Amino acid sequence: MELFGNRGMSFRITSLSENQPIDWKAHHVPASALDHHGAADIHHGVELKLGILGDMVRIREARASDVNGIRAVHRAAFGDEGPIVADLALALIADESAKPILVLVAESEQGVVGSIIFSSVHMPGSEYGPSYILAPLAVAPEIQRMGVGSQLIESGLTVLRERGAELVFVLGDPRYYGRFGFNTGHKVCAPYDLPYPEAWMCLSLGEVVPERVNGQLVCAESLNRPEHW
Ligand SMILES: CC(C)(COP(=O)(O)OP(=O)(O)OC[C@H]1O[C@@H](n2cnc3c(N)ncnc32)[C@H](O)[C@@H]1OP(=O)(O)O)[C@@H](O)C(=O)NCCC(=O)NCCS
């Protein structure tokens, strides 16, 4: 089934049922990193053919064997900040307070070439449904601007919608994330004061009207540190 199609690339939903559930123990990450759905419950992924390289990139849920690739792609994509962001990515995966978490990777013949993490957030005193924050997102420098980042985002939002997620937050460039419907119309406070409030965005996946959403966001412990804001 065609899921998305733009810029001369084709995307196809494929069965991932052959994938084994994540065995995080094998990589010394607590088994608690598995969310309550279990990795095997993700029944589809996305394949895209990068026209320029002729290379196939498949988007699927991460497995324990991807940990080194996830670390490497963050180090490569974020330059000087790479080690810090890579540590954040791995810390989130192992963080009990980030559950349920969704980790997708983009994989080519070269291994992991992209990664996206959606970790759980909540707002004390508010009654919104399951909510997440998108962070971090990384695509290997040599294949940036070919649609991989967009597909990681779209695929993640598709899975979260299926899981009944209500809100997704992101701190990033509005010109990029605005394409996916993220906007600043909400009234939710980030964990810290932000120098660029226009970068603090929310997307509603359900019936909630973002303009009416307010509260104080609490993220997973590993993301709630000031250096990440
Ligand atoms: C940001 C990133 C994930 C985007 O992934 P990608 O695969 O390169 O992006 P896509 O191919 O899906 O989209 C490319 C489009 O987004 C735009 N874009 C890419 N990165 C952008 C950024 N940081 N800010 C604004 N726009 C950006 C490009 O201009 C391009 O626009 P065009 O289609 O009009 O030419 C990737 O460039 C990356 O890993 N960057 C370094 C790490 C980073 O900044 N991560 C995001 C913050 S968590």
Q: Give the mean pLDDT.
A: 82
Strand percentage lies at 25-35%
Ions, cofactors, ligands: which are bound? coenzyme A
Helix-strand topology string: EEEEHHEEEHEHEEE
Quickly name the level 1 CATH class: Alpha Beta
The coarse overall form would be: globular
Work out the radius of gyration.
Answer: 17 Å
CATH architecture: 3-Layer(aba) Sandwich
- Terminal residue distance: 39 Å
Please give the count of helices: 4
Class of secondary structure makeup: alpha+beta
Number of strands: 11
CATH third-level topology:
Aminopeptidase
Strand sequence of the main sheet, in spatial order?
1-2-3-4-5-6-7-8-10
Labels describing this entry:
disordered N terminus, Aminopeptidase, alpha+beta, two-stranded parallel ribbon, binds coenzyme A, 4 helices, 229 residues
Description:
- The chain is α+β, with helices and mostly antiparallel strands.
- It has one domain: Aminopeptidase.
- 19% of the residues lie in helices and 30% in strands.
- It has helices at residues 67-77, 82-94, 148-162, 174-177; strands spanning 2-6, 9-15, 44-50, 55-61, 102-108, 111-121, 131-139, 167-171, 187-189, 200-204, 214-216.
- Strand 7 (131-139), helix 3 (148-162) and strand 8 form a beta-alpha-beta unit.
- Helix 1 (67-77) runs antiparallel to helix 2 (82-94).
- It is globular, with a radius of gyration of 17 Å.
- The structure holds coenzyme A.
Can you summarize this structure?
This protein has 229 residues and is of the alpha+beta class. It has helices at residues 67-77, 82-94, 148-162, 174-177, and strands at residues 2-6, 9-15, 44-50, 55-61, 102-108, 111-121, 131-139, 167-171, 187-189, 200-204, 214-216. Strand 1 (2-6) and strand 2 form a beta hairpin.
